[in-house]
Amino acid sequence: MGILAAFSTSALAATYQQNGLLDHAVKVYKTSIENLKDFLPSHHEVILNQTAILAATYRALGRLQVAEAVLSEPLRLFPQVISNSARQQIRRQMIHVYSEMGHTTEMASLIAEEDEETNVQIAQLQSSRNPTNERRIKSFKAKKLHALEDLGICAFHERDYRKAEQALLQYLSLAEEMYGNKGSTTHGMLVLGELYNQIKRHEEAKRYLDLAIRIREKDPDEDYKQIYHLRIARLSVCSTLKERKEARFNTVKLLEECRARFGDTHDITLTALLKLIDRLNEQGQRNDAINLGRLHVELCGKTVGTQRPRTGFAKFRVALLLWDFACWDEAIEMQEEVVSIYVKAHGSNHPKTAQMREQLEWMKRGASLRRRIETLVPGAIVLGTARMILAFRAWLTRLVYYFA
């Protein structure tokens, strides 16, 4: 098959892709790559570029395992002839895929490989002492910066806090070296602040988040959306009862501000709503938290679709609230819906799917224990006693916050 025919095949694949026929596109892309593998590297660039686009499309659809397979195919078929730029493009896509899959080990390995190459290229450019190389050096450092940020965020979400802290501190050091205290460094500060809050290092969390907010407010290219994310994160950092009590009222005010500025279904408004749900639950107002949790599920469904992982995660949070409120059967039913959503979005073997399935199994074991107890004690008494204990705990929590 000749070059022209191979490129025609690539065009056909692009047409399939544009029309949403991704499975057909994958088959055609693979055929094109097979037919082009004996030609010069320059002839692979178009196919490789389209492969990267296809993988990004699969990522957007949540089909991460397919995206990984698509990206692995060119490396398997002609590993020796792929140009450095094409290999780097594929590797960057693979880093994004592993980040979303939660595979921190594979991601860290690729980032280390990329970092090693970047350091060699920077050293070569610096040794030549050519003034025109400065722009290229900055470009390589920017690539290194993005890699560190990706690793930090992925490690944080996978609860590898030590690795996350190390990567994010390196990110901030390099960002400050390149840009100074500019708005472009604040996203790393946001994630680092959330990390420190998660591991109860509240003073460090406050310091980074307050600094990020000050930088954003002074930056002439001020990004209001980023400021709102920072303010929401800052409201989460509370080390005393009094701070938590104040945070609830401030979160309500911020939520109203977000609704007025961005609308009910905007990402920032949904994040602020989530923080308010956390505050209500923390302060013993579980019934209100459940009602707002259901509203959050509904708004996520309108924003991204009812079968997307974000909506599934919103349902998961409501399922936990229902379980804590002794609405056990309803919690299990909702968690089954969550598992179904994650299987469709990520596949059965995805770590996030496994986590949701594990939570469902834990709930079912709890329900099984309850049924065994009910063989000795009438179910209505078991349920009534459990809800009475939970209601007393909630009342006691509200009382503590009232006098804080």
From TrEMBL:
**Pfam name, any one:** TPR_10
Task: Fetch the InterPro entries from UniProt.
Answer: NLR-like (IPR053137), TPR-like_helical_dom_sf (IPR011990), TPR_rpt (IPR019734)
State the SUPFAM superfamilies in the record: TPR-like
PANTHER family in the record: AAA+ ATPASE DOMAIN-CONTAINING PROTEIN-RELATED (PTHR46082:SF6), ATP/GTP-BINDING PROTEIN-RELATED (PTHR46082)
Name of the featured protein? TPR-like protein
